[in-house]
User: Fold these one by one.
Assistant:
Number 1:
Amino acid sequence: MDTKEKFSKSGIKGFDKLIRKGIPIGSSVLVEGGPGSGKTIFCLQIANNACLRGKKVLYMSFEEPERKLKEHMHGFNWNPEKFEKQGLLRLERFRAIDISRSVEAMLSEAKRELLIDIHPILMPKDFSPDIVIVDSLSAIAAAFSGRESRFRIYMEQFFRYLERSNITSFLIREVTHPTHLRTSYSEKGEAVSFLADGIIVLYDILDKYGKRSSALEVLKMRGINIKRKIVEMKIVENKGIVVYPNLIIGENIKTRFSLT
Ligand SMILES: Nc1ncnc2c1ncn2[C@@H]1O[C@H](COP(=O)(O)OP(=O)(O)OP(=O)(O)O)[C@@H](O)[C@H]1O
Ligand SMILES: [Mg+2]
């Protein structure tokens, strides 16, 4: 196996600079950020670029309907319909409640929680993806509200399934996150963090002049010597997410912003 088969580039140039060799194939990567920080667009772009390279992508949406996701993609001049026709892309909407119900049913059948081996509920049987995107884990977690241990069990099984199948996954998680400079990222201690091989954080930055901008950080990526810095990113019409690996947030932002 050569390097090309072990690592996968995202096709988002500035972002690829941060992860150097690429994302190890079979990794589970959390994509975290606050509301409107660009998590969905980032993952749709990953999906689009992977399809361009002939990879099969399953986008599991627990939030927006399929139609909306396609509209977002059209806004960046991407063509999801073409990939669907080629059998490369599946954009599907699922209901989180269906997962929590099935888990309950399986657990009561299995009697003992340790016995269960959950097949990733709702995964289409006639499609074997290289990449799975889940938008979002937060929506699934909400359906397990009050039964967090059940959610943990489901997640462990889900991660195990992805690993066994050598599927690279991008799992969106909504977090309340820093909206200003020099606030360190703090782990919320949720079960999925230690299961994930990588964490990408999208930030919404507010400078002292009241101007907002977006930033991105690769917080962890097992097996890769990542560049550890928070850098500026933009969501650009007809293009998608653009990451600027040399524009570090913190040091130069005051100067740059006071000039605008
Ligand atoms: N075609 C476009 N051109 C430029 N910017 C866009 C375009 N479409 C969306 N955006 C910007 O992207 C932002 C966030 O996108 P996205 O839906 O990916 O966020 P999110 O993190 O998934 O949010 P949520 O938590 O609500 O799901 C929007 O607020 C909008 O400003
Ligand atoms: Mg979203």
Number 2:
Amino acid sequence: MEATCKNFEKCPIYSGVLKDKKTTAHGYRKQFCDAGEKGWSRCKRFLVKEATGKCPSDLLPNSFKSLEDIVVSMS
Ligand code: SF4
């Protein structure tokens, strides 16, 4: 089994925001959070947090926005 993203405990996608949408949350976890480095290294939330130390609460793992656009919109 692949390792889980180091951010999972505080990530609302993993445990909070989507708790009422189990199918969606399960899909994200399978595709990103629980898929080892190849999974979370594609997650926009993970990448934004690595780049800035924080992440907008409503950002989705598969956001269509570029990392650069997301970071600019945070400032
Ligand atoms: S992979 Fe992304 S969505 Fe999943 S826990 Fe990590 S930062 Fe959150």
Number 3:
Amino acid sequence: MSNLKICNRCVLNENYPGVKISDSQKCSCCTDMFGDTYKNYRAAFKNYQEFKKGIKNFTGKHYALLMLSGGKDSTYLLNELVNKYGINVLGFSVKHPFESEVALNNINSLIQKIPFEHIHLSLNTKVYKKIMQKVFSLKRDDIFSERLPCTVCGYITEIAGVTMAYMHKIPYVVYANDPLQILNTDYNIKKDLENMIKICGKADVYSLFGKDIIDEIIRAEEDELPTIVTPYVAMMDSYNENEIIEKLKAENLYRGDSVQTYCSLVPLLNYYSFSKYNSYFFGHQLAQEVRQGNTDRDFALSYMEMYRKIIMEIAIKEDITEDDMKFIRTVLEKKYGKDNKEKIEYECKSIVNMRNVANALQLNISTNS
Ligand SMILES: [Zn+2]
């Protein structure tokens, strides 16, 4: 363990799949980042310009399908697109078995407050769970593999959204990803569908979405498919998280915070990442915060170790003691600040619930899996 090579600029180490540490102790993400970041930014910028330019000449019904998670970013974007730019938006959400209740309530209250049509797609729960079970047992070695279950769930949402837009002849699919997620915003529906089939098998993909539509997407030319737009990534520097939350709360469009809209799989995703790769699930995100100077590097390193203990030594236990709970709270207080009680309690509950979520997926968790 003591010989583990850690990047001296961010917090990534060589355990992260696809990450290499150079002799000068820089990780491949810190050194290559400019390339990928710039490429993704350029693509996001170009698509967003075209999106804005095309609005006034559009004669169809819905100009955009917005991926609505119930989190702050998609809520804010919905309000901007509908009320500021007057765009006819089709809101789209995928119901999945591990959705946060806070997110669900946010979506329901938006439907009352903002004039837009909304589709809440229910996927076949049995097939969804079967896919997740399969994915949780896989191990790969390409970059971001430690996030595999999350990536696959993201593919599911993307394919569902794009096929819906395609069937309704909606030219744009809008994602509210924030700029920190820029390395995960190289959406390409044909490539992502191909990856999903490679990971999960064609039979499960067919049974989740329908054979005909999947075959049609595979056959379609790129320019026949909707374009995916990520406005916040395109706007980069003008994205301001706190401003978004303040404005939304002022307009009574949002309650809770980003942690409370996370799905209930998050602790289990961390379990997966720690047990299979010895890596923190949000490692790349934390690394980016450290690079940008928003989080102290030493704190980030110690936080990841404490969080590992929470997931791998406490959350897996059948009986979690008062002392365990005290430890969890202390760690979360360090991360969020003592005053953020609601956020801390929400995450505590979610951590304590990890075994139940694992049971629901019939996953066997133990210290040595
Ligand atoms: Zn680095």
